[in-house]
Amino acid sequence: MSTAALAEEVLSEAAINHIAQQFIDFHKTEAKGLLQTVLSPELTVIVTQGSNGYGFVLKYSKSEYIDYLRQGHKSRSRIGTDVAFISSELLGNREAKIILRYRSKKLNKYVWMEGIISLEKGQAKVIQIEEYT
């Protein structure tokens, strides 16, 4: 079996790190195209705002989520925000989870983002995102 065939069947660490880097670069530059390529068209996003379990849940589509992130960055002095890649974990051969933390200027706090990456037609894509503060 060729390595090209394997790449389509098994999610690689390089693909996971590439997606995490796209999120980091987006949070630093706000370049919309960075996320367009790594988010699945069928992406589901759940954002829980509030603390101690007393918050509210927002659900976004792919384009709504990118706009939501850009709104959270709003600042008069600079573009982008602080962001850190916390960890990644393989969930079998075809899925993985990444965790990032970024600073939301709109909420004035750090936000944790968990993304589930899966292979879709041989391409690594983020299929689910959950954010919480």
Secondary-structure blueprint:
Blueprint: H1 3-9, H2 13-29, H3 33-36, E1 39-51, E2 54-60, H4 62-72, E3 83-90, E4 95-104, E5 109-120, E6 123-132
Parallel strand pairs: 1-6
Antiparallel strand pairs: 1-2, 3-4, 4-5, 5-6
Polypeptide structure, described:
- This protein is of the alpha+beta class and 133 residues long.
- The chain has one domain: Nuclear Transport Factor 2, Chain: A (Roll).
- Helices cover 29% and strands 45% of the residues.
- It is built from 4 helices and 6 strands.
- Strands 2-1-6-5-4-3 form a 6-stranded mixed beta sheet, covered by helices on one side.
- A hairpin with a 2-residue loop joins strand 1 and strand 2.
- The radius of gyration is 15 Å and the shape is globular.
- The termini are far apart.
Give the oligomeric state of the chains in this entry, treating copies of one chain as homo and distinct chains as hetero.
Answer: single chain
- How large is the radius of gyration? 15 Å
Q: What is the mean pLDDT?
A: 86
CATH class: Alpha Beta
Give the helix level as a range of percent. Answer: 25-40%
- The N- and C-terminal alpha carbons lie at a distance of 45 Å
Give the name of the CATH architecture.
Answer: Roll
Shape: globular
Biggest sheet layout: 6 strands, mixed
Order of helices and strands: HHHEEHEEEE
In total, the number of domains comes to 1
